[in-house]
Design a protein that fits this description.
The complex is a heterodimer of chains A (528) and B (560). With 528 residues, chain A is mainly beta. Chain A is built from three helices and 37 strands. In chain A, the strands form nine sheets. Chain A has a five-stranded mixed beta sheet with strand order 1-31-32-33-34, with no helix packed on it. In chain A, strands 7, 8, 9, 10 and 11 form a five-stranded antiparallel beta sheet that branches. The longest helix of chain A has 17 residues. Chain B is mostly beta strands and 560 residues long. Chain B has four helices and 34 strands. In chain B, the strands form seven sheets. Chain B has an eight-stranded mixed beta sheet with strand order 11-10-9-7-12-13-14-15, with no helix packed on it. In chain B, strand 32 and strand 33 form a beta hairpin. The longest helix of chain B has 15 residues. Chain B is globular, with a radius of gyration of 24 Å. Chain B starts with a helix and ends in a 5-residue tail after the last strand. The chains are: A mainly beta (528), B mainly beta (560). Chains A and B meet through strand 11, strand 15, strand 18, strand 19 and strand 21 of A and helix 1, helix 2, strand 3, strand 4 and strand 8 of B. Strand 15 of chain A pairs antiparallel with strand 8 of chain B, so a sheet runs across the interface.
Chain lengths: 528, 560
């Protein structure tokens, strides 16, 4: 108990002292401590040395591990967190922490490909046994986050269980090291956790379990939960909200109405910050596309995480929606004076048919920067490429999905996003990660149909969609050209729904619907 | 400090008003989910009045936002002067190809079309096979053109659903909150707000359950062979095998589906069919379905809509002149919708009713209005047409038009009372309208219902500028949309269709102030052919079809 208190106090103390944003690397090993790699959600592993465009051609399946987490609707495993140098009883190990939707969290030795611990969260939620379909699956829906402590090699993992409580887990043992604390209403649908200045952030969507769709911030020091409701819309960025350098938290409010005169900010990219005094979350800025009414009318909502990044000394964030174009926004003034004017707006990249399902951008954008300062933005999308969208390099017809890459350039003193390449066709391209000049992308292999000509939305059940899903495929692409360097082929045998990749220390990870965690790598690396 | 600066920006932004987005957004909230143009004349009462459109508002038109949007050539072959029917509309289909706003209309060449009305893209085309055992389509004549002539129908409720109020998913007032330590997130308007009043339930309640959210509506179409088709609105495929409904090769009026029963009327003797009202109950299993009919004798059943419904389901039809019968010609007849038996009638000898009646509510009384070739407008009590002697209307106007000008009535109600609009031609007779310039060819006229305690009357108020062979007007937010059809209607009856088409002029759409009849906008030379079908409206747009197989859309532009 005394040790528990000390470890908790130590963890909190470090977090308080450092204003911790998860660090991607310690002295010898890289980490992947949060969905999307960092608080800015760049999805860029900056500290990769083993993977390269040359070495990735020899990528191989290192191991696959079937975990006993039960799927719910189409969901199973979320992106693993990689703790490169976690101190365990036997010394330093590289451990993956993987959350499963059925209130489970696992510790995996990534060198051996073996499970070292499992934690099942007890629940105060009275599960009636019925879930709300693929849109409201119930269970644990937010990818947890790992936060370094003061002690090198020691971390704390935070998670949100089905009953909405905040869980604090020691990743070296899987034990909960603090009391589960009230955070969100139960049975909601929170998205991946993020952290800034000792405040954990998430957003919720779909109104699952009656939970209002809004931003939430758990202040670790005071245990107060601040929130902000944009008044309309759902907030479903796949990798959770992104955070800028000043602590502004960004997410889109999709499928909502935009009535700013009534302070209703649906169908907008919204920025909030914690009030340091009250701990409430307050809106500081927003951008609503000029065609917000159209986006609402055709269900082309914002549903993807937009990363935050620096370019030539300024901070930007880039966002998108099912409409399938990019909005480049200056974080010092989203949308300009009228909140309707982005720094740059691309033409449509995909979704020429104006579909609400199976087309558009659904997960997250990604960004990375070359050593020479070239800034890239990556857009994984579903469905066919728009017939009018072209890039200097294209890798064949795209009918099911692909990744489009843009370079940030300046023209006439104004920033713009210039198409660079479009990848090969993929079965519904989902969020990418970047490591040392390689883009890892995957086609999720799921049936994303929601309506049929005769049954309408009656088709949209997990049973139908699972039956018509295939398998995910992982690709390694040259980050500068989109050339396919490697593919997992048919090695992955199940689809992956609403998950994402993790990459660190020469390995790439993906969890699938059948509960299998896959690890592909360039070569095994032993712990020193 | 930055937060305060941004808050001040927010306040300035709000004070600046952004009235366009505010009005659009507010009215959008009001209009979402309201009634749509599902049948001829908008609703079962044939009011021609679109309630609660979010974007097509008097305000927007006054600001100059109303404009020509697009036109589309439809692949259809005209038969005589018939080409396309006016469209019925569906503002939001959650379909297998995305959320769509669609217009559905028939083509004289026995085709059915669907068009995405936001993007002006064809959605689907269905060709109806001629299945009647008559040896094929007969040759066409002016009186009996053959092919598809009846405007299709979606499911139509007896009572018009009021516009819904609310702002999308959530719609709660935004705001910040903080939960106390250890208590989790504060509740903040947890419950999602109601999505406005639910649609009114069918008065009789014998029809099928409403189409569930996200499911697929049927579209009901009668082909030239008299068969009834139920098509998926998503792709035009048949939901079930088409079946005989009315005799083949007739000239049916618009189809309407109410409470699971499809209705239409036939007149003119085409295909040897009687002048009759026809009904087919689709609620029963296919093997038990049988068309029933009510025959009107030698009198034509007037009007392109054929029949109108009261709120309780009573059917009202208008009979032209003819030989003595029971009920007599020159009558407005009420019928039971299930048995098609006569329940009441009003007769004005020699009146020669010439358009489908319209039914509306005034205080606690349901009223029926109808025009006749005697140049008058009649007002009847729906519960007792014509009183005890079947000859006494509640009111009748002075003669206001020459013979043959009638198309259909439109009616709406605002804070100033109940209005009724009709088309007219030639001399104005004894009715004294405020004028908007000379109108020697034709015009739209407006009457106001006056209620002086026990006595109702119809007061002439205004007439529009000159229109050539005007089509039935429609009403949206106090604006009257009128069409100078341009059709040449003169000359001997034997004049062939081709020559009539040649002598016709392009149609012009007008927007009139409903209170004064003043023209506030017109389409100029945008339309290049004459028109015969009426207008439809919804989703911020107004639609007109023309003889040369074009579909035109006018309205408030929407950024895509």
């Amino acid at each position: 108990m005394h040790r528990l208190v000390l470890s908790v106090a130590g963890a909190i103390g470090f977090v308080v002292a450092s204003g911790a944003v998860p660090h991607a690397q310690t002295a010898s090993r890289a980490n992947w401590l949060t969905d999307g790699g960092d608080a800015q959600r760049t999805s860029w592993q900056r500290h990769e040395t083993l993977i390269s465009p040359a070495s990735v051609k020899n990528m191989a399946l290192m191991w696959k591990l079937k975990l006993d987490n039960q799927p719910r609707e189409m969901h199973n495993l979320f992106a693993p967190l990689i703790l490169g140098d976690l101190q365990v009883a036997s010394g330093a190990r590289e451990i993956a922490v993987v959350a499963g939707i059925s209130d489970n969290i696992y510790g995996i030795d990534v060198e051996k490909g073996t499970q070292v611990w499992k934690r099942h969260f007890d629940s105060t939620y009275d599960d009636t046994g019925r879930s709300g379909g693929p849109l409201c699956p119930g269970g644990q829906t937010a990818t947890p986050i790992a936060v370094p402590t003061e002690t090198p090699g020691k971390y704390v993992v935070y998670a949100i269980s089905w009953d909405g409580r905040l869980r604090t887990v020691d990743p070296s043992t899987g034990q909960e090291i603090a009391r589960a604390e009230p955070f969100l209403p139960a049975n909601g649908k929170p998205y991946s956790l993020n952290i800034f200045n000792n405040v954990l952030y998430t957003t919720t969507a779909q109104g699952c379990g009656g939970t209002p769709n809004q931003f939430y911030g758990y202040d670790l020091k005071t245990k107060k939960v601040g929130s902000f409701n944009p008044g309309s819309g759902g907030m479903w960025p796949r990798l959770g909200p992104s955070i800028g350098k000043d602590g502004s938290v960004y997410a889109g409010s999709g499928d909502g109405d935009y009535f700013p005169e009534r302070q209703i900010f649906g169908q907008a990219i919204v920025a909030v910050k914690q009030n340091p005094e009250t701990k409430a979350l307050e809106m500081t800025d927003w951008y609503a596309p000029s065609n917000a009414y159209w986006l609402r009318k055709r269900d082309l909502d914002m549903n993807a995480t937009g990363p935050v990044f620096e370019y030539k000394g300024k901070e930007y964030t880039v966002h998108t929606s099912k409409e399938c174009r990019l909005w480049l926004l200056d974080t010092s003034g989203l949308g300009g004076e009228d909140h309707r004017t982005p720094e740059y707006r691309t033409p449509l990249i995909c979704n020429e048919e104006v579909q609400f399902a199976g087309a558009g951008v659904w997960g997250a954008l990604a960004t990375w920067e070359e050593a020479n300062g070239t800034r890239w933005v990556l857009v994984p999308f579903w469905g066919p490429k728009h017939s009018q969208f072209t890039a200097p390099i294209e890798h064949g017809p795209v009918v099911q999905g692909a990744v489009a890459a843009f370079k940030m350039e300046e023209k006439g003193g104004k920033p713009q996003l210039t198409p660079a390449w479009v990848s090969r066709n993929m079965w519904q391209a989902d969020p990418v990660v970047i490591a040392n000049g390689v883009v890892f992308a995957y086609g999720n292999g799921e049936d994303t149909t929601q309506a049929t000509f005769d049954g309408g939305l009656g088709y949209n059940t997990s049973a139908n969609r699972i039956a018509h899903s295939g398998h995910a495929t992982l690709y390694a692409l040259d980050a500068r050209t989109g050339d396919e360097l490697w593919s997992s082929g048919d090695q992955i045998t199940s689809f992956s729904h609403f998950s994402s990749l993790a990459v660190a220390n020469g390995r790439v990870y993906l969890g699938t619907y059948d509960g299998t965690l896959y690890c592909f790598g360039v070569k095994p690396t032993a712990m020193k | 400090m930055r937060t305060q600066w941004l808050q001040r920006r927010l306040q300035r932004f709000i004070r600046a008003g952004l009235l366009v987005s505010a009005s659009v957004a507010f009215l959008h909230a009001q209009g979402r989910g309201g009634a749509e143009w599902t049948t001829s004349g908008f609703d079962a009462q044939r009011s021609h009045w679109l309630r609660g459109d979010a974007r097509l508002t008097k305000d927007a038109v006054q600001k100059g936002e109303f404009a020509f949007l697009w036109s589309m050539k439809i692949e259809n072959t005209s038969r005589q002067l018939n080409s396309l029917t006016p469209p019925v509309l569906l503002d939001r289909l959650i379909g297998y190809r995305g959320f769509k706003s669609l217009a559905f209309f028939g083509g004289s060449d026995d085709r059915v079309f669907a068009v995405d009305t936001d993007l002006a893209r064809p959605a689907w085309t269905t060709i109806l096979n001629y299945s009647a055992p008559t040896g094929g389509r007969p040759s066409s004549s002016m009186e009996c053109p053959g092919g598809l002539t009846a405007m299709p129908s979606r499911r139509t409720t007896l009572a018009v659903a009021p516009p819904t109020v609310g702002g999308g998913r959530g719609g709660v007032r935004n705001g910040s909150a903080v939960g106390e330590p250890g208590r989790g997130a504060a509740a903040l308007g947890q419950a999602l707000p109601a999505r406005g009043a639910p649609p009114a339930a069918p008065a009789r309640g014998r029809g099928p359950a409403p189409i569930g959210f996200g499911r697929v509506d049927p579209l009901f179409v009668v082909g030239g062979d008299g068969f009834i088709h139920s098509l998926y609105v998503s792709n035009g495929a048949e939901m079930e095998p088409p079946m005989p409904f009315i005799p083949p090769d007739t000239k049916p009026s618009a189809v309407i589906w109410v409470d699971g029963v499809v209705y239409t009327t036939t007149s003119g003797g085409c295909g040897g069919a009687p002048n009759a009202l026809w009904a087919l109950d689709l609620n029963v299993p296919v093997k038990e379905r049988k068309t029933i009919s009510w025959k009107a004798g030698s009198a034509n059943i007037a009007g392109a809509s054929g029949l109108a419904f009261g709120a309780e389901g009573t059917i009202y039809i208008a009979l032209g002149t003819g030989a003595a019968a029971t009920p007599p010609p020159d009558s407005i007849v009420a019928l039971n919708p299930e048995t098609l038996t006569t329940t009441d009638w009003f007769t004005a000898a020699g009146a020669d009713f010439n358009a489908t009646p319209t039914v509306f509510r005034h205080k606690n009384t349901e009223l029926v209005a109808a025009t006749a070739n005697d140049g008058r407008l009649y007002l009847l009590d729906a519960k007792s047409l014509g009183g005890s002697d079947h000859k006494t209307p509640l009111a009748v106007t002075a003669k206001f038009t020459d013979t043959g000008a009638a198309t259909a009535l439109a009616t709406f109600e605002d804070s100033n009372g109940r209005w009724i609009f009709a088309t007219a031609s030639g001399a104005t007779g004894d009715a004294a309208f405020a004028q908007n310039g000379p109108a020697p060819n034709g015009r739209v006229v407006a009457f106001k219902l006056r209620d002086a305690g026990e006595k109702l009357s119809l007061e002439p108020v205004w007439q529009s500028q000159d229109l050539t062979a005007p089509l039935a007007p429609i009403v949206v937010d106090g604006l009257v949309f009128a069409v100078s059809s341009g059709e040449y209607r003169g000359g001997p009856a034997s004049l062939p269709a081709a020559q009539r088409a040649q002598r016709s002029a392009p149609a012009v759409l007008y927007v009139l102030d409903g209170a004064t009849g003043k023209t506030t906008w017109n389409s100029g030379t945008k339309i290049t052919s004459f028109a015969r079908g009426g207008l439809s409206a919804g989703g911020g747009q107004v639609y007109l079809v023309t003889y040369d197989n074009q579909l035109y859309a006018f309205g408030i532009p929407l950024e895509h």
